[in-house]
Structure formats: C-alpha cells, structure tokens
C-alpha cells in the first residue's frame, strides 16, 4: 500500500520548520504496517505541484494536515486526491475542533493525536475492514456520519519511532532555519519535540491544545531525546536544535536530568526552546545555559494586565517577562518575545503600550501577531460573546496579515498599521540594528530577511 501525507501551508510561513507531526506519522506507518510513505510539504511545493505528484504516484491513501488558515488550500489537495481515487483522511487542529467542516470533504477525519489512530485506520483500510472499532475518527458508513469515541493518548512517547526525516528534504529546512539567527546566521539547525500536552489555559490555544495532546504533560525520556539528537548530528551535521514544546522545562526534575545528560553526551550542542516567563528561575537557567541553551522564546502577549487576565487568561504579569529576560541577559542567553495586537476590547492605547513595552525590553527579537480568535478556542468564544462579527471564511484566520474580526471599532487596517509600526519601531532601534544588518552579510542572510518581511505584507 502506498500512502501520501500532505502538509498544507501558507506561502509566508517559516520554511525552516519540518512537518514533524507528519514525519512522526510516517515513521509509525512504516513501523506498524510496512507500507510505502511519501511526505509532501508545501514549504517547497505549490498546490499545482502537489496535484501533479498525486496524479503521478497514484496513492491508495492520502492524509492531509489541516489548520484553519489553510483550509481552502487543504480542500484543493483533498479534492485532487479523491479525483485520483485515493481514500482521503484529514487530521490536525482544524480537523479536531471543526470536524463538521470536513465530514463531507474527506472519507475519514482523525481527531486529536494521529500516530496510533491513522495506523489502525490504514491497517483496516488495507484489509477492507469496517472502521467501527477504531477510536478517534469520524467516517461515513452507508451514507451517514459515524462518530467514534476519542482515542486515548500515547502514554509512553518513547514508544514512538523518531520522525522519518529521511522522507524530507532536510538540507532545505536546515538552510532556511531561522531560530538561531540572533546568534549565528549560518547555524545548521533544525527542530525537535520533547513533550506533548499543556496544563495551562491560555484562551488563544485552549481547549484546542488539550483536545490535540491533553492537559497533562507527557515527557520523553532524556535518553530517547539524546538518541534523536545524536541521529541528527550524525545524519545531517546539525550543531543546533530548537525544541518546539509549548512549555519546555515545566518539570524541573526532568529538566535537570536532561541538561546533565546533554552536558555529558552532547557537550557542544547549541539549543533553544519556548518557555513561559513564570517557569524560569536562576537555577534552571543556569543549568540550561551550561548544557548549551543560547536562545529562549517567551510568550509576553501584551503589556496590558487587563488583556492578559480578562481576554487571554495567560496567568502571567509583564513583570514576570521583565524578570525572565533580566535573568536570561545575565547568562548571555539570546531572547525573543511573542506579542499579539488587536484582542477583543483592546484599545489603541493598550496596543501602543505593548509596542513601547516591547521596544524597551532587553530583547534580541520580537514577533507581533494580529490576534485571531481561532475556531474552537476560548478566545473565539469570548469574541463571539462580546458581540464581535467573526468571519465565516476560514482563510481570514491568519495571524500574520489578516483579521477574522474587527477590534473595538478600530478596523483591520488600523491594527495592521500598528503591527507594522511595532516591527519598525522595534527593529530600527539602535540596540537591534546590528541584528538587522547581519542579514546583509551573506546571500543566505538576505534571503532569510526577505522571507521574514514577506510574512507581514
């Protein structure tokens, strides 16, 4: 049996992020079923090219990753696959929270974590068996939609085979990776995942994140993570890894064990991660720095405590962000913060305060996204309950350049203007001009800069 897994993307998304979810899925399929698997990623393929590949390869099954902003693109892939006679399965965050929008498009929809579910579905399809006993899917049977019970999460992440990166053009991802640009534009870096699940309740993520991976953090063992790092070094000569986990370092005991093992077994590795500001302390940052941490990304979101508490339910303070950045600065760890502009009820003054707050922080990089209340999230329900008109076009839910709703009468153009103002004010300050000019020192750096700019226009 031949299976194609397709990753739909927006054209301006980062090209340095391999689709690890599909790579995990591919590895599981090969191990469990022994089938032929191809991964097609729109980072480097157009929709027309994917359509041609589908026609050429003639797969038995096609799995399509669907997030809300790329719904229309994913629907084209699904349509092309079905026209070529493939059995089509949709999965991903949009499939999990807006399953009804896919039930007449795909032959089956995987809800939540996909490795075990998709493998069971593929095995049943190959054997021409009914899907009634497969938890975690919706499918059609005799013309009606069957909604099976949720599938339990993978209890031990170490049982999952490492992502099938051999199915990806890793050199292109490495060449485009931007996570360590503030440190070295020419770093050979890629991404990994060390855990799944998040116990926090931020309104812009939840409950979608819990439906995908659960509220309890499941951690891979340090041994398993180190083994994957060694594979990356051996096969792709990487010297840096960025961990995409939502709350890296939540478990301090695990973190200490992981860092100790890194120091002993991969002493020259450079790494980075995401973290909440209120999870960081001097001791943790000290051992992280000693084991190779050089880049730290923190979700600051807003300078307004009202927005953080009442709208995002983030549970942090701007003071937490300042203190975390100060600790990182003392240890020479480069930092980035994520901010959002245009939350429901957010005033222009509050947005301007966030811009000023970001500019004054000891930061190397900052990202200013436009708040988009994604379907299925508490932020979406908040915006709806407050009487905001929310777009019924999935493609409008784009936190780079469009708005799915109008904020407080300001309108999308005003929020877009403030987003661009934030970028200019932040990056044209004296302390960050060196970072900007570093992009002009090589063709690779210049390409990266142009791609970063394109995201916001």
Write structural notes for this entry.
This protein is an alpha/beta fold and 457 residues long. It contains 17 helices and 15 strands. A 7-stranded mixed beta sheet has the order 2-1-3-4-5-6-7, with helices on both faces. Helix 2 packs parallel to helix 3 and helix 13 packs parallel to helix 15. The two termini are 42 Å apart. The relative contact order is 0.10.
- Shape label: globular
Percent of residues in helical segments?
Answer: 40-55%
Structural class call reads alpha/beta
Described by strand count, sense and barrel closure, the largest sheet is:
7 strands, mixed
**Compute the gyration radius: what is it?**
22 Å
Can you give keywords for this protein?
457 residues, alpha/beta, seven-stranded mixed β-sheet, six-stranded parallel β-sheet, 17 helices, 40% helix, globular
Task: Explain the layout of strands and helices.
Blueprint: E1 2-7, H1 20-32, E2 36-41, H2 47-57, E3 61-65, H3 71-83, E4 87-91, H4 93-97, E5 108-110, H5 115-126, E6 137-141, E7 144-147, H6 170-176, E8 189-192, E9 195-196, H7 208-213, E10 218-219, H8 222-236, E11 240-243, H9 252-265, E12 270-275, H10 282-290, E13 293-301, H11 305-311, H12 318-330, E14 334-341, H13 348-360, E15 365-370, H14 378-385, H15 412-427, H16 430-438, H17 443-454
Parallel strand pairs: 1-2, 1-3, 3-4, 4-5, 8-11, 11-12, 12-13, 13-14, 14-15
Antiparallel strand pairs: 5-6, 6-7, 9-10
Helix pairs in contact: 1-5, 2-3, 9-10, 13-15
């Amino acid at each position: 049996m031949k299976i194609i897994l397709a990753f739909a993307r927006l054209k301006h998304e980062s090209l340095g992020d391999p689709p690890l979810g599909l790579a995990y899925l591919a590895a599981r399929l090969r191990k469990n079923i022994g089938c032929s698997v191809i991964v097609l990623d729109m980072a480097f393929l157009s929709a027309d090219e994917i359509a041609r590949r589908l026609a050429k390869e003639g797969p038995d099954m096609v799995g399509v990753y669907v997030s809300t902003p790329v719904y229309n693109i994913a629907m084209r892939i699904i349509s092309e696959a079905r026209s070529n006679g493939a059995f089509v399965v949709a999965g991903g965050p949009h499939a999990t929270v807006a399953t009804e929008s896919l039930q007449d498009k795909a032959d089956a929809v995987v809800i939540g974590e996909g490795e075990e579910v998709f493998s069971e579905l593929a095995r049943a399809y190959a054997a021409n068996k009914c899907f009634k006993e497969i938890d975690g899917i919706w499918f059609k049977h005799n013309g009606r939609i069957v909604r099976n019970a949720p599938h339990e999460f993978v209890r031990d992440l170490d049982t999952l085979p490492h992502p099938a990166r051999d199915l990806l053009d890793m050199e292109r991802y490495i060449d485009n990776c931007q996570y360590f640009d503030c440190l070295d534009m020419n770093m050979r870096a890629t991404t990994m995942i060390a855990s799944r699940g998040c116990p926090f309740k931020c309104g812009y993520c939840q409950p979608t994140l819990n439906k995908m991976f659960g509220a309890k953090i499941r951690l891979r063992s340090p041994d398993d993570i180190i083994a994957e790092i060694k594979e990356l070094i051996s096969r792709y000569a990487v010297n840096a890894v960025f961990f995409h986990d939502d709350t890296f370092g939540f478990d301090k005991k695990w973190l200490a064990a992981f860092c100790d093992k890194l120091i002993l077994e991969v002493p020259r590795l450079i790494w980075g991660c995401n973290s909440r500001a209120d999870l960081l302390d001097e001791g943790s940052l000290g051992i992280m720095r000693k084991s190779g941490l050089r880049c730290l990304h923190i979700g600051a979101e807003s300078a307004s405590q009202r927005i953080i508490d009442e709208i995002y339910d983030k549970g942090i303070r701007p003071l937490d962000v300042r203190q975390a950045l100060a600790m990182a600065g003392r240890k020479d760890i480069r930092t980035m913060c994520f901010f959002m502009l245009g939350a429901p009820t957010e005033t222009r003054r509050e947005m301007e305060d966030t811009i000023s707050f970001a500019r004054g922080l000891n930061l190397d990089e900052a990202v200013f996204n436009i708040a988009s209340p994604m379907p299925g999230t508490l932020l979406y329900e908040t915006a709806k309950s407050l009487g905001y008109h929310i777009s019924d076009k999935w493609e409008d839910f784009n936190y780079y350049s469009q708005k799915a709703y109008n904020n407080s009468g300001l309108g999308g153009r005003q929020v877009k203007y403030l987003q661009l103002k934030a970028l200019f004010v932040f990056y044209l300050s004296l302390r960050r001009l060196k970072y900007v000019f570093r992009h002009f020192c090589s063709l690779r750096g210049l390409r990266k800069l142009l791609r970063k700019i394109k995201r916001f226009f």
